[in-house]
Amino acid sequence: MIRLSLGTAIELGILNKKSDIPPTTAYIMIGNRCNNNCAFCSQSTESSTRKDKLSRVIWPEYSKEEILNAFKNYKGSNIKRICIQSMASNDAHETVKEFIEYIKDDIDLPISLSAKLESSDEIEKFFSYGVDKIGIAIDAANKDLYESIKGNNYNEKIKFVTDMAMKYPGKISTHIIVGLGESHEDIYKLYTYLIGNNVTVSLFAFTPVKGTKMENINQPSIESYRRVQLMTYMINKGCLKDSFKFEEGYLKDIKISENIKQDINKGYPFEIRGCKDCNRPYYNERPGSTIYNYSRSLDKEEIDKSIKELNL
């Protein structure tokens, strides 16, 4: 089964609708069902939600021929990368291989893969197929949360991700979901460790999905998320721990240099970060609702609002 995110299908012209923020990456989901049982995920083995959803995004199904033809006939300039989200199953991984082989001679775009890969041989195999970046989800920012929500060994996962990032510099990414029950200090420790080991890290805001175990958990407050965005932005800029004051794990105060203040006034910390050319429109939010990750440059009103939401 091959699906496109709704925004991707619109951008490629397969679906005759409008989107106000075009995706800069074409998002493709492959697989019928995931073998994982992540408590927050619509694709979990125990989830009762519809299977054409991932987070809050709808993913309509198309044939590989329809998808390839859409790419061949694409006249736009927004799409600069393909990102394949693979279910955790052998069948899905085999379909990923077949799909890459089917499109790679006709589509001159870099390909990222997000998948549950657990050995160096698997990583090497997908790089050999033509993938240039691989994302391995960590999601939860501390050991207890990770093992209760995802059911796997946290220390083994962190070691594997960082080992692969050191072996393949600039090619391994992960993401952290803010709002699963972690503290800001947990995120600081994990984020700093990952960045120090050559891992590219994206942030998501937890999004409750009906039919999952965590459907009744609220999204993080926008103040909490904005502070994490600013903290991680500053870590990327080389700021040290003495820039951040934690009280019982919560980020209570931030020392902001003049350079960082200038970046805040341009809205940079509130824009999506992660893999190049990945803007993930409305992955955490609905149009018109609170925006956690801005998928484009912010205007003056949005910058002012984001600074107010920081509440520092």
TrEMBL record:
Keywords, alphabetical: Iron, Iron-sulfur, Metal-binding, S-adenosyl-L-methionine
One Gene Ontology MF term: transferase activity
The organism's place on the tree of life at top rank: Bacteria
SMART domains associated with the record: Elp3
Presence of keyword Transferase: no
Keyword S-adenosyl-L-methionine in annotation: yes
Segments forming domain Radical SAM core: 20-240
Cited PROSITE patterns: RADICAL_SAM
SUPFAM superfamilies named in the record: Radical SAM enzymes
InterPro entries linked: Aldolase_TIM, Elp3/MiaA/NifB-like_rSAM, HydE/PylB-like, rSAM, rSAM_sf
Protein name, entry field: Biotin synthase
Taxonomic path: Bacteria, Bacillati, Bacillota, Clostridia, Peptostreptococcales
